[in-house]
Amino acid sequence: AALLDTPINDAQTEMVVNWVTDSLHAKVTTFIPNHWHGDCIGGLGYLQKKGVQSYANQMTIDLAKEKGLPVPEHGFTDSLTVSLDGMPLQCYYLGGGHATDNIV
């Protein structure tokens, strides 16, 4: 399963991951934040401890470093496609909106 954005902190993110595991019988393996704000990336520390692979717009990575936040592992500039059980999950940077680094 992929998690797109996290709650604001590790404790709430753990609750979401546990719900995915217990209710959906799936394992969160991939994390992609929409942008750098805490309501999107606040629980990344917990996900990293669980070994979840994280991907983000390179601007998100740079802003997370600048702000002293947990930093996603893998960056992209224009687009990203990851495979989840053989299905493509596509993300695109089309320009700033709510945040300068937000993706769709």
TrEMBL record:
GO biological process, one term: antibiotic catabolic process
Keyword set includes Hydrolase: yes
UniProt keyword annotations, A-Z: Hydrolase, Metal-binding, Zinc
Presence of the UniProt keyword Ribonucleoprotein in the record: no
A GO MF term: zinc ion binding
Domain of life: Bacteria
Cofactor(s) in the UniProt record: Zn(2+)
InterPro entries (alphabetical): Beta-lactamase_class-B_CS, RibonucZ/Hydroxyglut_hydro
Name the UniProt record assigns to this protein: Metallo-beta-lactamase
The encoding gene: cfiA
